Amino acid sequence: MSFNGKNVGAELKKAFSTGVSYMMPSVVVGGIFLAIALSSGTPTDEGMVITNPFLKNLNTIGVAGFAMMIPILAGYIAYSIAGKPGLIPGMILGYIANNPIGDEGVSTGFLGAMIVGIIAGYIAKWIKGWKVPNTIKTIMPILIIPIITTFLVGMTYIYILAQPLSGFVASLVDFLSSLQGGNALLLGLVIGAFTAIDMGGPINKTVTAFTLALMAEGIFEPNGAHRIAVAIPPLGLAISTFISRKKYTQAERGMGVSAGFMGLIGITEGAIPFAVNDLKRVLPAIMIGSAVGGGIGMLQNVGTYIPHGGLIVIGAVDGKLWFFLAMLIGSVITALILHFTKPDLPETKAPVKK
Of 258, 293, 313, 349, whose CA is between 20 and 30 Å from 235? Predict the structure, then answer.
């Protein structure tokens, strides 16, 4: 297996697009069912509590859709690179990346899943090129390749890749803690940016842990900034798909509707499909938008009294008007940044006049 930089770049771009296209239905199904279920919930200090038995079942379906989302992404990234032998190793490894491992409970979310999906794809592709006896060829794609690929990449992730991230997250907690009691605007900007940076992954959850720790001490404003920021990435992208339609495929515009629902109920993961397809433009846009929203929230002393976000919890917010305005302003900023940085799709550009 030979590597050419240009070819690998094109292959990776195709792999990400494949992963997203197969992941989209899981995001849509999970998001819609969660939106319906959580919309009936009651805000409590434990989050949104659903009491209706039927809606609890809808919530179970929605949670399952989200649980499948990341493994599907990693699996089909590997599938795009290596074909069928890469599919199951990618899914298994994506599941591992998205769930806590070891005594420290390290999780790397969608970024880790993308990495292991890529590695699994190339390892499986490499093994496919091995010259083996004809008697073994028939079991290579269903037995030999999946087992070797899953073992090699799984052990590499567990023993090499996961631990450095754990150190990074620990450093991040220390950094956030050092900002406690400091400049309100700076703290809000940092909370907002780090809330958006991995869209529900370990960094986002670190910010959640930080704000919950402050809530236990009776400090609710950082949680307010965080709960504003969690909604901005999906809401900003939903607005972007509406005002900048020429920059998105029909499937992505449909995803924008689902992202909007998820933003309203505080599910940051609604932005993931867009980020995977165009990380270099989407990530700065959502980080800036969430940072602005978080900063406004802190400046205006917005406090949220429950561990959940989005407009769905506005009844449990101190400073409701600024909670809404900060979320709206941050979302619009995200959409405007994407409007000016994201190019039109080739098929939507007007023909050049000669």
Answer: 349
